Predict the structure.
Amino acid sequence: MQNIIEDFEKNGYAVIDDFLAEDEIQSLRTACHELVEDMNPNEHKTVFSTIKITHGDDYFLTSGDKIRYFFEEGVFNEDGNLKYDKHVSLNKIGHALHVLSPEFRKVTFSDKNLARAINLKDPVIPQSMYIFKQPKFGGAVIPHQDGTYLYAEPMKVVGMWIALEDATLENGCLWFAPGSHKCGLYGNYRSVRNPEWPAKDGSSSVIYEGTKPNYDEHTWKPVPVKKGSLIVIDGLVVHKSERNTSERSRHIYTFHMVENSSKWSERNWKKVSFAQTDFVYFSLSEQLKMPHSKNVPKTPSPAINNMLSERCGKRYDNPIKEGLANFILIIFTLITKIYGYLHPNKSYASHRYWIISCSIISFALIVLVILAYQLLIWSAFLLHSILYYFAYLFCLFGAGLGVAGMVFFDKGAKASEGFDKRASEVGSSVRDHVQKFN
Ligand SMILES: O=C(O)CCC(=O)C(=O)O
C-alpha cells in the first residue's frame, strides 16, 4: 500500500493489480449488458465525443442523476437509425450508475474503496461512467485534466478507473504525463455550463474558458493493465486514451470522488447545488452509508422503483425488502428539498446534520402516527369483538327463551286439555243431577 501511495503522490496516478475479483467484474459486465438490453436506442440518440462536443442538448446536462446512454460518432444512418447492433454502438453510459444500479453501487461503496488511504476524509461521488471503447471505432479521449470538467476548490478530486477487460496499447489503454499533477490546472482551462444556453448562435450547452493548454509538451507514458486492475487518478494529472484500433473492446468502470469540504463549482456541467435532487441522492448514499457492500439495497420500495424506472428504465422485483431504507430516503429527500427551497444558496454539507436530524424526527413522528393508527384499529377491533359476543349471548338468551316458552306452552296446553275434560265431566254430571231432580 505504501508504494501505491508514494506512486500516487509522485506521478499523479497509481496502479493496483487484481483490485476486482472475477465475479465482481462479471457482475458489472452483466449489469451493464442488461441495461443496454433494456435500452431503446430511439430514446437515447445522443453522441458523445471528447473531440467535438455534439451533446449540445440537455440530455447530457441532466444526466447527472440518471443512467443515460451516449453513442459513438457515426453509428446512426441518415434516417436516424442505428447502423450496428446497439451493444457495439455505445461510447459510454453515465452518470449515476453508482447510485441507481445495485451492482455498481456495491463495487463503488465497497470496503475496497481506497478513499481514506489517499487522504480523502469525507468523499462524495459526483459521477460514474461505464466506457466501452468499442472494437475498431471506440473513440479517443483527448488529453485532459479531470479538474477541467469537475472543478472544486481546493482541487481534491480523484478518479477510480477499473479495467473490466485487459487494456492494451491496441485497444486504447490510458496514457499519463507522470508528475503533471503538480502544476495545478493548466491555463485555468475549464469546461463550464453555457449561461446563454440554449443559445441563438447554436453554441453548445458546455463551453470552455481559460487558455487551452498544449498537453503535447508533456512526456507521455502508456499504462496497459490487466482486467480487474484499478488506476487511481489525481484530478490534476494529464491523461488521455487513444482510439481502439483492435478487434477487442476495452470496457472500464470509472467514478470520481471529491472531498466534501471542497467547494464544488456551480458552473461545472454537473450541478450539485443544494436544491438538486441528484445531490440529495448522492449525499444520502454517501452520508448515511446505506449502500455498503454488505447491505446494498437491491429491491427498492414501489415509490423508489417508479423513480428508478423513470430515471434509468429499470425496475427491481420484491419491493418490500428495502422498503424501510427507501422510506427514510423519501423523507430525507422531502426535507432536503423543502430546506433547499427555503435556502437555495446554502450548501448541503454545512447543513447536513440539521437535515439528517429533521429527517430522523420526521421519521419517528411518522412511525408514531402509524403506531397510533394501529392502536386505534386494534381498539376498534376489540370493541367490535366484544359487541359481537354480546350479540351472540343475546341470541343464545333469545333462543333459550323460545325453548322455555315452547316447553311451558306445551305443559299449559296439556293442563288446559285436562281442565276442559274435567269441566265437561263436571258439566255432564251436573246435567245428570238436574235431569234426575226434575
Ligand atoms: O477510459 C478512458 O479512455 C478515459 C477515461 C478518462 O479520461 C477519465 O475518466 O477521466
